[in-house]
C-alpha cells in the first residue's frame, strides 16, 4: 500500500506545475572520482618552461622554481582559516583539474575543460588552457580521462599580446584567458571567458578562429582584467562594468545550435546609479544572446535573479528551447557536520561551511516584462538522497552532500538524470576532507520531478 501511495504521489507531482522556489528531490545513482593529482605533460612543441606549472601560485608573487616545494593552502574565503591541502606547488606537468563547464557528447563521454589554472590572471602564466573528453564509469567509480587538447593561436587571431606571443604555436595560458564554459557547435568549439569577458571560437584542434568582445545592449562591457584597460597613472578608479572574476561562467546553446547564451557570474556595475544591477533590490545577472552565424551579440537576453546578492553561478545548460539548469552557490566550503563552533577561525574545522548549493530550473518563456526568468524550482546539493549508499566519499546516513566552494558542471544525461561536478581549484580547495586537496567528483542524479516541472 505504501508503495502504491508513493507511486501515485510521484505521478501527481510530475503532472502538476511547480510553484516558484519548489524544492525537488535528488537521488544519487552514480559517483565517480578523478584524483586531484592527475597531470598531463605539456606538448613537445610548447616552451620548455610549461612542463612545470604553478610557479607563480604560491603565497607570495615571487616565482617558485623547485617543484613541490611550497605547500598548498586552502583559504578561498577571506573569512576562512588557512588549512594545508596535502599537495605542494609547483607541479611537474599540467593539472587536469579545475573542471569548469561540461557538455554531454551522448556517446557515454563528456566534453569539459580546465579553467584558467590557479585562480587569477597574475598567477597563471604557466597554466595551459585545455579541454578534455572524460568518460565516467558509474560502476567502478572512476572518471576516465580520455583525451586532452590544448588551446593555441598560431594564426594570431587573439588581438592582444599573449604570454607566448613570439613562439611558433602560441599556446594559450591562464594569463591570457580564463575559460569557464564550453559548447561544441558543428566543427567548432565556443568558450566563455571571465577575464575580458570574451567569447572565443576555436576549431576542434583548439586553434583560435576568432575572439569577440562582450556587448550588452550594443555597448562593450569589460572587466578589471580586460587587456585593453590600463591602470591609471595617478590614484583613482578605473572604469569597468564587470567585477574581477565575474565574466562568463556559464554558457548554454540553443537546441538548433544557432544561438549561445552567455551567463555572467556577477552583476554589471552601473556608474549612473553607483550600484550593481538589480530590480526591486534583488541582484540579477545577465544572460546574453549571441548569434553564432553572424558572430555578434544580438542585443537580446534575459536576467537571472540571485537568491542572495553574495551568491554566484557555476554553470548553465539548456534542457530544451526555453528551459535550462543553472548552478547557484555561496562561497562556503565543507560539510556543516564539521563546522567550527562560534569564535575565531580554526584550521581543523570548517568555519565558513557550505550552506547554499543549488541547481535551479529556469524558464525563458515565463520571463517577466523586464526579462527576469522564472525560477521554476531547485534541488539542494547539500541534501542528496543516497538510499543505496552509492557515495564513494562524503556519504552519511543515507545522504550525500556536495560541499565544495565551486561547483561548475551541470548537464542533462537523459529524461530523468543530470550530471554534476565540482571545480577543485587545485591545490586550494579542501571541502570534502580537512587537510586533503579535493578530487574532481562527478555525480549522476535522478531528478525527474525537477526536469518535468513547469
Describe the structure in brief.
This protein is mostly beta strands.
Fold and architecture overview:
4% of the residues lie in helices and 40% in strands. It has 454 residues and is mainly β. The protein has one domain (2-452). It has a five-stranded mixed beta sheet, with no helix packed on it. Strands 19, 20, 23, 24 and 25 form a five-stranded antiparallel beta sheet that branches. The protein has a four-stranded antiparallel beta sheet with strand order 2-35-34-33, with no helix packed on it. Strand 11 (130-137) and strand 12 (142-150) form a beta hairpin.
User: Which stretches are poorly predicted, pLDDT < 50 over at least 5 residues?
Assistant: 1-19
Report the C-alpha radius of gyration, rounded: 21 Å
Strands in their spatial order, largest beta sheet: 1-29-28-27-26
The major pleated sheet works out as: 5 strands, mixed
Report strand %. Answer: 35-45%
Question: What is the straight-line distance between the termini?
Answer: 29 Å
